[in-house]
Amino acid sequence: MPSAGAHRNLEEAARAIADTGRRFYQRGWVWGTAGNFSTVLSSDPLALAITASSLHKGELQPDQVIVVDERGKPTSPGRLRPSAECLLHVRIVRDRPREAGAVLHTHSVWGTILSEHFAAKGGVELQGYEILKGLAGVSTHQRTEFVPILDNDQDMDRLQAGLGKVLARNMSSHAVLLRKHGLYTWGETLADAERHIEVLEFLFEVVGRTITMRQHEGEAIWHS
Amino acid sequence: MPSAGAHRNLEEAARAIADTGRRFYQRGWVWGTAGNFSTVLSSDPLALAITASSLHKGELQPDQVIVVDERGKPTSPGRLRPSAECLLHVRIVRDRPREAGAVLHTHSVWGTILSEHFAAKGGVELQGYEILKGLAGVSTHQRTEFVPILDNDQDMDRLQAGLGKVLARNMSSHAVLLRKHGLYTWGETLADAERHIEVLEFLFEVVGRTITMRQHEGEAIWHS
Amino acid sequence: MPSAGAHRNLEEAARAIADTGRRFYQRGWVWGTAGNFSTVLSSDPLALAITASSLHKGELQPDQVIVVDERGKPTSPGRLRPSAECLLHVRIVRDRPREAGAVLHTHSVWGTILSEHFAAKGGVELQGYEILKGLAGVSTHQRTEFVPILDNDQDMDRLQAGLGKVLARNMSSHAVLLRKHGLYTWGETLADAERHIEVLEFLFEVVGRTITMRQHEGEAIWHS
Amino acid sequence: MPSAGAHRNLEEAARAIADTGRRFYQRGWVWGTAGNFSTVLSSDPLALAITASSLHKGELQPDQVIVVDERGKPTSPGRLRPSAECLLHVRIVRDRPREAGAVLHTHSVWGTILSEHFAAKGGVELQGYEILKGLAGVSTHQRTEFVPILDNDQDMDRLQAGLGKVLARNMSSHAVLLRKHGLYTWGETLADAERHIEVLEFLFEVVGRTITMRQHEGEAIWHS
Questions:
Q1: A36-70 pLDDT, tens per residue?
Q2: Beta bridge partners of C50
Q3: What's the CA dihedral at A112, A113, A118, A119 to 10 degrees?
Q4: What's the ipTM?
Q5: pLDDT band for position C6 (50/70/90)?
Q6: What is the pTM of this model?
Q7: How far apart are CA B87 and CA B92, in angstroms?
Q8: CA-CA distance, C3 to C47, in Å (whole number)?
Q9: What span, in angstroms and rounded, lies between the C-alpha atoms of A34 and C73?
Q10: Most exposed residue of A126, A184, B167, D187, measured as fewest CB within 10 angstroms of its CB?
């Protein structure tokens, strides 16, 4: 029966999302109720399992994951509301149909710092690192991964339209940074998206610490 | 019966406070017996549940939380004494009656560093970050949160009087830093106050690392 | 019976490797499925127990450890493939027959940063630290440990040949850094190799932070 | 019976020491088998419970704590040997008879960095921090705690004689740093000594990060 299958899917997805939330909370990536996570249950019509708004991610419970449709509206009754940023998740899974079966959004210290530091350049370039091979479809360290930076906005219609343009202009990118806000990445499965978060957060820390260390040499590598 | 209700309130408050203590200890925010935490049990007359003096916060037990009145005096017998800083908690819950149902005080590395770095400017400005929306009543990143800095003092009467002035001059602030000492913040509930700690500690680290990274550019953003 | 003994060896080795993986994952040294670990089960002919390719190291299971021969080929059926970097493990245990009964490879933030920072000098010099006595055969802090840096390469035949040359030129070294990639170290037992990782990662962080701190003094210590 | 009492003392001391070891290992202060810990069982004649040599501190077992006399010699049979640094522990408990009922030695990243950075000045000055009140007998932040730095030496007779001179010259100090080696501190009880470690490690990180952050201002505060 389809409905039973869908229910089991939601339960499994919700448990997996709650586990991811606890891990990210322990690393300080979703403090202050920041962050939201989603996985696609079905794509046509879209049914997206997503964390409800304003929850403590270290104590996330499976029943705090709700289902929304392609307009970001909840499809079942209940007092929990989806995050306003739900529309960004919907945009990503619609614009990256083959790559995005799950979307993760985090606020990390280094991601926040780099999103401001490289804003004038339009994005962060990650180049030549072996760990880039952890991104889907990347098979060599001789890769330049560009993480575009989008200005933050409280108007969600405007922000998701801006996100659509950034996604269209950067077809080979695996993630987008919102300025002074945080990281959005995605993957075929939740595990793939979590691996992308790990790869990108690792490299954000490497780049941030490298810039800090190299100041004295007057190097222009990062600022040319 | 009111007294039974009050007892249950204290037990619940004490368990919640002990849980908060263990989390903060694991993050290195209350080392060396630093820090103290309180929640309001009743406001008129004031009954404040607060951690006793000089305890290891990683092994905090519910029976190490005591009750004090509006002068900071214990209202029940026992060998445990309240912290001298108890008066600062009392001051905050009296001066912020609607906002402060719980008060948290922590010593973090970045909070300590910024409390000295920005002392001459009178406080730390946090501006334009999405995570500021984790502070009660803030609904946009286009916000300037000012965390005033107060000189430290071992004279508690003088210090709580100084704190009162700072609170009166900064009615929209959610927290105060004591110089080379630590952070005081508050919230309607203990969970709200803990969320505020997470938001502010996250941003203190972002600001501290940003200043360190940007030295080479001779930027005056943080020192104008 | 030898085969039973070998099986027990593999089981024990696999459990120990899985434990090491979980510890390293918690420290952020093997994110994004990075890293691989091996121990020698027998040396002539070589039977090497090694983690399979592309696994999440925080949830490593003993049955994800497979056995390969001296050409890096699996010696038992199964769907798990060895990592391409398996050949580097084989090279180390063959070229360091007395010292390398186990090989560990990690990606850490500071190791990655120093592998690029000191690339032009050919390696990282670690000098005068007491903790160097944690390296096998080192009995005084008055030691200069040289960790050579090798350029990264996706051609494994070329990379393992280059590794062989680096090992031959640095007979007293306990480890090699791959540029913008990570650390390879080894030890008589897995515990010895893990101790080496801890010593070297500790010192990479000390050296990286020291360089960052000392910029202002225009010191040439690290860049002469 | 006295002997039974002594045995119970050793068992309790050994369990407490093992717990401390696990906590410090998790924080990265005793990697690579670094560090050793002791508590006084009786003072005349001296019986000192101390960790044996070269153990993994994250898996420390109570039976890895042995008893030594005033010459640092084991007083009971067994294959475990005391650390060579055992003599430094003996020196501290003999020279600080009222204050040192327990001695802790750790290797931290910031302690190691500062032990070199301030070597020419003879020690690290910690001044004006509230958390200094976590040190025994300190009741105000208006305190200058001086942590003297002693050159490292593999000759233990010479090193313990040097330590004796440093202790005699700095009667109000609570700790000593060995250069490029680590921290020795003590307290009336093991809990007091662990509190001292937390206070000092916290402040080493504050001082190290402050120096790093302030470079651009050409401040001479830390280098005058």
A1: 999 999 999 999 999 999 899 999 999 999 999 99
A2: C38, C66
A3: 50
A4: 0.93
A5: low
A6: 0.94
A7: 9
A8: 12
A9: 46
A10: B167
